[in-house]
Each structure stands twice: as C-alpha cells, then as structure tokens.
Amino acid sequence: AQTVTQSQPxxxxxxxxxxxxxxxxxxxxxxxxxxxxxxxxxxxxxxVIRQEAYKxxxxxxxxxxxxxxxxxxxxxxxxxxxxxxxxxxYFCAFMASGYALNFGKGTSxxxxx
Amino acid sequence: xxxxxxxxxxxxxxxxxxxxxxxxxxxxDLSVYxxxxxxxxxxxxxxxxxxxxxxxxxxxxERFSAQQxxxxxxxxxxxxxxxxxxxxxxxxxxxxxxxxxxxTQYFGPGTRLTVL
Lengths: 113, 116
Hints:
- The complex is a heterodimer of chains A (about 110) and B (about 120).
- Helix content of chain A is about 0%, strand content about 55%.
- Chain A has no helices and 12 strands.
- In chain A, strands 2, 5, 6, 10, 11 and 12 form a 6-stranded mixed β-sheet that branches.
- With about 120 residues, chain B is mostly beta strands.
- Chain B contains no helices and 13 strands.
- Chain B has strands at about 5, 10-15, 20-25, 30-40, 40-50, 55, 65-70, 75-80, 85-95, 95, 100, 105, 110-115.
- The relative contact order of chain B is 0.33.
- Chains A and B meet through β5, β6 and β11 of A and β5, β9, β11 and β12 of B.
C-alpha cells in the first residue's frame, strides 16, 4: 500500500515571500505520478501541479514548482511570490498508474499581508 | 471550472435514510472516481468506474453503492445513513485510453452531506 505523509499541518507566509511545503511517500511501484492539489475555503479541489516519476526534470507551473527526489521519495512544493489567494489547504497525492489517488492529510497554508 | 458537475451541492437528511449523489464527468472522460472527505478520515477513495463498469474499489462501505450509466454520468447511493457519513463527497473524472487511466483527475465541486 502507498502512503503519503505531509509533516506540516499548518504553515504561514507573508505576501510576496516564498514557502515550501513538504511531502514524502512510500511505494514499491516504479511507474507513478505525484500531484499537489489546492483546496481553498470554497472546498473545490484544484490541481496545482503534477510530476511523472519517470521524468527527472522538476515540474513548474508559473509561481509553483516542485522538488522531486525519487530516491528519497520526497516531493515538495515551492510557492514563490505568495499571494493572498494562495491561502488554502494543500494536499499531496500519489497515484500508481491506472489507480486512484492516495492523499496526504494536507497542509493548511495562510498567506498574510 | 473543471468541467465536472455534481448535484446537489448540499444535502441534509436524517439517520437511516437513503440519498443519491450525481456526477457528470468532463466531456469525453470515461473514468469516474468517487472520494469522501471527512474530518477524521481525510480524503479517501471510494470507487472507480470506467465506461460503465466498476474498475476499482477503495474504502467503500457495503451500505454504499455506485453505478455509471451509458451517458457516462455516475451516481453514488448511500443508504442506512449514519451520523458518521456526514462528509464532502467528491467526484473526479479522467480520460482513459487503451484501457489505462491517464495521470490527471479533475474534481467536481463536491456534495456536502449532513446526516442529522
């Protein structure tokens, strides 16, 4: 079974600063995908970024980037130039190819003015 | 807007009752997933359908069932409801090709179920 661990239940960052959210996972699979989803107060689940395990290059989407360390089974999310609208719960998720998502328990991020 | 729709948005019912949650996937998506988000259990996978057939089961109770219809919309049926079934229920969809799920699931807005 795959497990996903997010060790930071809550984090806070000031507007325009950079913050990194941590995620580790455990799997024996070789072909898998990793995701970060954002859940703002509206409770909508929004895909932030994804990473294919077979790709060594770290994924980037505008202000969001990941640091994927396959050997260490680590998948952290860096948010640059934080904005008030980034305030949300962030979930790290693992998906073995062809299966459902396994989610971590989430990190609540608060961006302050 | 993800393109996945769910109805109703909110549902309030009593213990012992039965409810049906509805999901319409993104246009062209063949796979539908149901997830439950509760305070104590977090986000859990319940069940997956692909093109009308059940593909995978997660932590779904026997009191819960689902189906996917020929037009690809899906329904999640919850019966003999208990207080602990109060949660946010999400539907997600993805495109399958050649029998494999692709790597991205898009979520609907969820149905908030309150059991009193």
